[in-house]
Specification:
Layout: E1 23-26, E2 29-38, E3 42-43, E4 46-47, E5 54-63, E6 67-75, E7 85-97, E8 101-111, E9 126-137, E10 140-149, E11 159-169, E12 176-186, H1 189-192, E13 197-207, E14 212-221, E15 237-245
Antiparallel strand pairs: 1-2, 2-5, 2-15, 3-4, 5-6, 6-7, 7-8, 8-9, 9-10, 10-11, 11-12, 12-13, 13-14, 14-15
Organism: Roseomonas alba
Protein name: TorF family putative porin
Keywords: Signal
């Protein structure tokens, strides 16, 4: 039975990127935080909340040397399980060369406090290493991500995620139009609950004021509903969100 929900594939996709605004703590340290309300929480374009809204928060403590630690939390809803929240731990190093090229290497542990596996179910917590690359050529920014897990969601074994994208800042109100394409490979597709898949998205981010911003986008995969255990969590969808960043 758990195979039918394993395609929910958890994690890092909506974890807020480091914000421009930061709280200076002195001695080279700074703190950044984001609170988000969203109509759906998707990770790699698969719903983590069974197509329902989510409230999320993230914090990052960084040092001018490039090292940082952080956390991300969100409500989740996986059918036929008692998983109700996700709390992640992140640590890494980020460095920018010549004010244009940024390398970000991190380790992420995706935890689900309160979850207890029932007969026929698998452990859903997992670990990933994530490499992010960014090249800024104003007003265009090119981004790429590679993530590897030795034992992915639902103990589904070795996995790889590759993603490429572009952000274009418009001269009107600093509006940003973004596009992403990615592919997820999983060693044990039967245990994961879905085949390897292609993901794609287009979204727009609009700064408002006082640290607030709004976003709306379209997110999709090439997984059919029958390949997703009969669930709608892999379907194409529109998502809207409001964020506050400090």
């Amino acid at each position: 039975m758990f195979k039918k929900i394993a395609a929910l594939a958890l994690g890092f996709g909506l974890l807020a990127a480091p914000a421009v605004a930061q709280v200076d703590l002195g001695s080279g340290f700074s703190l950044t935080g984001t609170v988000t309300g969203t109509t759906d929480y998707v990770f790699r374009n698969i719903s983590q909340t069974n197509n329902r809204p989510a409230i999320q928060g993230s914090l990052e403590l960084s040092h001018e040397t490039g090292f940082y630690i952080g956390t991300f939390a969100s409500n989740v809803a996986f059918p036929n399980t008692n998983a109700r929240q996700e709390v992640d731990a992140i640590g890494g190093f980020r460095y920018t060369f010549a004010e244009a090229f940024t390398v970000d290497l991190s380790a992420v542990y995706y935890g689900y406090p309160g979850y207890s596996e029932q007969p026929g179910q698998n452990q859903i917590a997992f670990f990933e290493t994530v490499l992010k690359l960014k090249y800024a050529l104003d007003p265009v920014t090119f981004v790429g991500t590679a993530a590897w897990s030795p034992d992915y969601f639902a103990s589904s074994g070795d996995s790889w995620w590759l993603e490429a994208g572009i952000d274009v800042k418009l001269p009107i109100h600093d509006i940003v139009i973004s596009g992403r394409v990615g592919y997820q490979w999983i060693e044990d597709n039967a245990r994961f609950g879905a085949p390897d898949y292609f993901a794609y998205s287009v979204f727009v981010t609009v700064p408002i004021a006082y640290g607030f911003s709004a976003a709306v986008g379209f997110y999709g995969t090439d997984i059919s509903q029958s390949q997703c255990g009969g669930l709608k969590v892999c379907d194409n969808r529109f998502i809207g969100s409001i964020s506050f960043t400090f």
